[in-house]
Amino acid sequence: MTLIKPQLTRAYTEATRCEGSLIYDGDGNEWIDGSSGAIACSVGHAHPAIVKAMSDACEASSFVYRTQFTNPEAERLSKRLCEKLGYAASFFVNSGSEAVETAMRSAQQYWRESGRATKTRILSRRLSYHGSTIGSLSLSGHWPRRRLAGPLYGEPTQPTPYPYRANTNETLATYGTACANELERELQQLGADNVAAFILEPIVGASGAAIVPPPEYVKRIRDICDRHDLLLIADEVLTGLGRTGRWLAMDHFDVKADLVCLGKGLNAGYFPISAVLYSEVVYERILNGSGSFELGHTHSNHPIGAAVGNAVLDVLEDEKLVDRAEWYGAGLKSKLKEMCRKHTIAGDIRGEGMLVGIELTDPTNWNNPFPTKFNIAATATKIAFENGLLIYPSAGFAGLLGGDAIIIAPPLNISEKETSMLIDKLDQTLTHLNEAIFKQRRKSHAA
Ligand code: PMP
Question: Pairing between strand 259-262 and 392-395?
Fold first, then answer.
């Protein structure tokens, strides 16, 4: 008789209306959506073009099953995405986790159909989040999420470049290259004949709050994958379709992956649709091999989801939101930096476009992370919520040290006025957070 929510005993506020970058409850209280929900709602809430596209699609065909029919919305979306992003084929699923699972299985199918059936393992990075299903979670290194499930299929073994806490004696380029070289080292141990693919988030999202690698890292990873016959999977569920000021975050590094997972940026939060894009080489191998795509879900290539995807592309194009994410995001980041100058707990401000991470560090302890028992990211998020602002917490990315950060990622079309409100509310949040930390410290000293 009850709806399951994350904290079973907590009372959640009921959102009854959303518009643009604002969310309201039944009493008219207002929140600025400073995180686009879970970094999903990239074109704002209740956008008229998307509402209309969904309603038209429902009237045209509410559902057809992919083994029995194709449908014009899915055909059109696939063509548009492939043309725009330079891929040969795409397949639509429901969630980001399913997109990652699909990419994993497609990589294995590719090698099987190439006569190299031993190439099955997928390597991944220790600081990462790829989803909550068993397969995608097995690839994810983010300990707070990972520890809740098991047994999982293997462990992420590869380092994720994390410039803020890199060894300061080396240049970022050297550091990035050294991180990538670990992949080659592992391939020598495992034998590349056992490995199908390597997966990365080009810019780390939920598990690390917008950590941007040195470009040399991503280029070197591509080179190692090419030399050892590995497919490169870019998990762009969070970054893809404009969030970072590029259509794909991989474009920041001029590197092309063989398989790309899209999610939040494609559905903008309106309908559960995610996607995998296939390079020509991968698609043609399967096309000219078995000619059969091995997997799918009841709702794959769903016409309403595809109509949402098409409408999201329309809005991104018509409102030039990818370009806007780049220049407006740069302005947002510098305003956040300016505002944070007086908050000594704001240790690092990073990210690209409209994906900004603020790492919260302890100024009384050489900017190390706060003790994990302080729950800084969760406390900041709670204070912000009480203050009418949504932000996204990220914790546990600095290994044994813990690590706390918040993500600021509003809709790409947030207005100037709402942006100022966001920054003011965040300013107040950090002041209150500082006070809460001070009180907590006094309590711990007294105890
Ligand atoms: N990959 C990445 C990079 C993500 O950020 C997420 C969700 N935060 C997922 C995969 C999983 O997506 P979903 O929650 O839609 O299953």
Answer: unpaired
Cα(159) to ligand 1 centroid in Å equals 20
Cα 204 to middle of ligand 1, angstroms: 11
In the three-class reduction of DSSP (H, G, I as helix; E, B as strand; rest coil), residue 158 is classed as: strand
CA 432, CA 163: separation in Å to the nearest integer? 28
pTM of the model: 0.98
Q: CB under 8 Å to 19, separation ≥6 — which residues? A: 44, 45, 46
The residue contributing the CA closest to ligand 1 atom 12 is 96
CA distance 137 to 273: 19
Distance 220 CA to ligand 1 centre (A): 25
186 Cα to the center of ligand 1, angstroms: 26
The CATH H-level superfamily of 15-46+320-446 is Aspartate Aminotransferase, domain 1 (3.90.1150.10)
Q: What is the pLDDT along the chain (447 residues), one digit of tens a residue?
A: 899 999 999 999 999 999 999 999 999 999 999 999 999 999 999 999 999 999 999 999 999 999 999 999 999 999 999 999 999 999 999 999 999 999 999 999 999 999 999 999 999 999 999 999 999 999 999 988 998 898 999 999 999 999 999 977 899 999 999 999 999 999 999 999 999 999 999 999 999 999 999 999 999 999 999 999 999 999 999 999 999 999 999 999 999 999 999 999 999 999 999 999 999 999 999 999 999 997 999 999 999 999 999 999 999 999 999 999 999 999 999 999 999 999 999 999 999 999 999 999 999 999 999 999 999 999 999 999 999 999 999 999 987 789 999 999 999 999 999 999 999 999 999 999 999 999 988 887 777
> Is the shortest distance between the CB of 31 and ligand 1 below 6 Å?
no
- Measuring CA to CA, how many Å separate 36 from each of 20, 138, 385? 10, 27, 13
Pocket test for ligand 1, best of 129, 233, 244 (most atoms within 8 A of CB): 129
What is the spatial order of strands in the sheet that 195-200 belongs to? 89-93, 274-278, 259-262, 231-236, 195-200, 121-123
Instruction: Give the ligand 1 atom nearest the CA of 238.
Output: 5
Determine phi and psi for 337, rounding to 5 degrees: -60, -45
Domain ranges of the chain: 15-46+320-446, 48-318
What are the residues facing 19 on neighbouring strands? 22
CATH of domain 48-318: 3.40.640.10
What spacing in Å lies between the alpha carbon of 350 and ligand 1's midpoint? 20
Is residue 416 within 8 Å of 332, Cβ to Cβ?
Answer: no
